[in-house]
Prior knowledge:
The complex is a heterotrimer of chains A (about 450), B (about 475) and C (about 130).
Chain A: H1 8-18, H2 32-35, H3 48-59, E1 66-67, H4 80-86, H5 89-92, H6 104-121, E2 125-126, H7 133-148, E3 153-157, H8 162-171, E4 178-182, E5 202-207, H9 217-226, E6 230-235, E7 256-260, E8 276-280, E9 292-297, E10 303-308, H10 314-317, H11 330-367, E11 372-374, E12 383-388, H12 392-400, E13 404-405, E14 408-409, E15 419-424, H13 431-449
Chain B: H1 44-55, H2 78-84, H3 87-90, H4 102-119, E1 123-125, H5 131-148, E2 156-160, H6 166-173, E3 177-181, H7 191-197, E4 202-208, H8 220-229, E5 233-238, H9 250-253, E6 257-260, H10 262-265, E7 280-282, E8 295-298, E9 301-304, H11 324-362, E10 366-367, E11 378-381, H12 383-389, H13 393-402, E12 409-410, E13 419-422, H14 430-449, H15 451-455, H16 468-473
Parallel strand pairs in B: 2-3, 2-4, 4-5, 5-6
Antiparallel strand pairs in B: 1-7, 6-7, 8-9, 10-11, 11-13, 12-13
Chain C: E1 8-9, E2 14-18, E3 24-28, H1 30-36, E4 39-43, E5 50-51, E6 56-62, E7 66-70, E8 75-80, H2 82-86, H3 90-93, E9 101-105, H4 117-127
Antiparallel strand pairs in C: 1-2, 2-3, 3-9, 4-6, 5-8, 6-7, 8-9
Amino acid sequence: MPFIPHTESDIRDMLSAIGAKQIDDLFDEIPSSLHARQAPSLPPALNEMSVIRLAQERASRDPANLNFIGAGGYDHHIPAAIWQLATRGEFYSAYTPYQAEASQGSLQVIYEYQSMMTALTGLDASNASLYDGASALAEAILMAVRAHKTQRRILLPRTVSPLYRRVIATLVAAQGIELVDLPYDPHTGTTVLPAETAPFAALVIPQPNFFGQLEDVDTLTDWAHQQQAHVIALVNPTSLGILKPPGQWGIAGADIATGEGQPLGCPLSNGGPWFGFMTCRQEMIRQMPGRLVGRTLDTENNTGFTLTLQAREQHIRRAKATSNICSNQGLMVVAAALYLSLMGAEGLARVARACHANTQQLVRRLTAIAGVRRVFQGALFHEALLQLDRPVQPVLDALLTYNLVGGLDVSAHYPELGHTLLVCATETRTVDDIHHYAISLQAVLEKGMA
Amino acid sequence: MKLIFEQGASGRSANAQLPPDTNIDDIPAHYLRTTPPVLPEVSEMDTVRHYTRLSQQNFSIDTHFYPLGSCTMKYNPRACNSIALLPGFLARHPFAPATTGQGYLSCLYELQDILAELTGMHAVSLAPMAGAQGEFAGVAMIRAWHLARGDTARTEIIIPDAAHGTNPATAAMCGYTVREIPTDKQGNIDLDELRRVTGPQTAGLMLTNPSTLGVFEQQITEIAAIIHQAGGLLYYDGANLNAILGRIKPGDMGFDVVHINLHKTFATPHGGGGPGAGPVGVSARLQPFLPLPVTVREGEHYRLLDETDRPYSIGRLSANHGNGGVLLRAWAYARMLGEPGMARVAQFATLNANYLMARLDQAGFDIAFPQRRASHEFIVSLKRLKDETGVSAMDFAKRLLDYGFHAPTTYFPMLVPECLLIEPTETEAKTTLDAFVAAMIAVAQEARETPEKVKSAPHTLPVRRLDDVRAARKPDLAWKPQI
Amino acid sequence: MTIPSDLKYTETHEWIKMHPDGSVSIGITDHAQDLLGDMVFVENPTPGQHLVAGKECGVVESVKAASDIYAPLSGRVLAVNIDVETSPEQINTDAWGSWLFTLQPDDPAEIDSLLDAEAYRAIAEADHH
């Protein structure tokens, strides 16, 4: 019996203490009509050796290609120490730290993580994580609406990831929130402000945006604040190694910053588990969804850590809670705290610069090929939108034979831009990798033309 | 312990981790930060030592008995972790073509089937990233179903007062008004009240069964009939699925939607708060509304369904596939248990709970529902002890920590005063349960003889009782450098 | 329990004190603070805001609960008590003295519909049983 330690004599003694003849008697309060149905039909049990063998066979069917997709998940180096420590049983198999005195390890890690995220984003307070970047943005929108009190309109640029936009549409659908698209400039790929607009609760500003382009965050922030609206910064944490933190955007700074935390030590892992982060100004902390850890004192005046401001949360406030979130992505936060400790400000800036330089190099090499051009002008961070002279998907399929995952086809999301391919080269891509991509793409395109 | 920020020294770094520096000059200055963020400046060994030591300040399943009611803290098999970390699974980008993820998708497809089979549901989506997101998906599907039929009059969700807070919070997120209904003295739902509040305005009922009171809702068939006759749907909160796993199916009880907490029932780790996974299963009529993506097999090929395949889907809950690594761990667990192993989960979880309840009953503790069988968990009320000694459930819980046991859930459900909700799970041996009973008896005795000792507990942990009033009045949520 | 007879009350545990100029001040009862426990935060309505009787207009929060404040009367908010916002623990030590905000009622006759001390005592004592 896998993972069940009972011996025959244990079972006998336990039943006797209960006063039952057999284990089945313990289910005698369940109506018999419910027992009568068919037993589940499941695959046979495997021991550890067999299940690992089976999993290895399956994992080996998923080949290790050279990846040039970003689009919200980035292939960064992950220091070996991170997952060796994060999967220590004391972190891995602990529950939410409800008993603070028996959970100081998890609590201090979260407090340190919160401190790192506030430093990175230039805001005052961070929560202890949300599920992922997309759902975190949905929560940020709900939070901004709560904080604004009178307006329920949100300005959502088309330069926000179309994948995020779908998630937002799902998660805020039933709450009477109006999502208003903002167009982008066809030359710069950055958000264009409307000449005039009805009052709204918040403007979302992605930096960098989905195309990899840098938005004019100062102007956008000041404009939204002039309209008495909040600013939600949707940011990439790696980029904050070099880019201006949301807390310093414009005159007053953004009000909420959120985004995908995966670049901070989480493997791509087919898309999860990753984590969403969220920081905000001090005045808004009681509108923040999710858990918060605070530093306090014990009865002997020693410093310690505890979950705090829980009255906002679902287990206390129920239908009036800030969110229904309970489980978050705690273990990924351990990884992020380790990542930011190991990298430090200098390491993060170096990673950011290396990603930028590699992507620039990739764009130079690829756009030198006939039939490939960059769509937009202007500064980018570590992603770029390319346009091909033919449908993208067949080209990507052909690149697979060169062991290349060549980027993401976004033509269907932005049909007005033609055949478009979003590419990214992080610090883990070498000169040789980029060269391999360039000559492979050239070969594929030439073959196609022949 | 000192914060990581307070260790290290200016200019120190974990050099082996840093990529070579690159000079970039093509980003205009107004986009750039002018001062670096204040992050730790530590060596790799500083970091490893600090976080290793912090880990040692935690209780966890791997180190302690953790009978936290309603949380199912069972052993998290290590093989499941190894499998999720296999390079082929770990390195793949979620947007890489499906042809490069056939191994992964085959595991997801099997997991969908296994969960559908165990819950008696027609189809499953693995998209929700936690129980609360599973609840959201479930209630959103109920809403979508009513609206698709042009039924716009349904504005209420009925929820028993014993439910987890996520239930009413979810109903509110889905735009519904919550109708709370009371529980009777046996721990069952008050049927008269249910009949009274059910009507054409009822979208559905959210129910945990066995309930958070640790008993099986015996009138479930009548409840299902009342809701269905009124045109509503039944939502099964899978928080307590461990109590019936492999034995009874929510589908057979009449439920239309279920969510399953893989981080409880399927032994994936809680990670100090997450990540979880909250797959949803539905009856055939709700299948078109399932959240995306859903994995399908076409011949020998697996692929993910999208909006073109499922135009009525409630949509997406994450930018990707949900918590893939958690799903792989659950798949591995399900394959290891297989057919006979799965049914033994409910048997032994229930055996352990009833044994513990019997032992504590015999030791003089007040069982909240003594006339009922325990499910996989049960409630002890310390109200009498508190009246006699002044020692509260919270004090009692803190003192248990000194004895090397994580405390049971305290003050939930709120219906039972001074309660401890105790869930031992099937993976604990009798020896451990006996030691826990001994500790409970010892603390009760201390409460009578030296109550101050219990009220001032814990005494042996890294910190003493923490001041949570101070924490909430003057929130200190982030370290800031001293200027 | 002490329930001042010169105040008016609501079923949702607010007290209302009438002033000679026709304005009223509003707080939460001693019984309410006892149920909530250590107060940690007060969120008041905004001065100038118009409140509708029976609607939520603020929040008082303790470590273990957050509770809405309901407007006892319709009217315009005149002032809020910054002292209580800064030190919410005042409510625990002196609930009757810790007013949250003042209001100019639209219709002074509405005051007659509020509970008197005896009626509120019956409600508060029922909670204890």
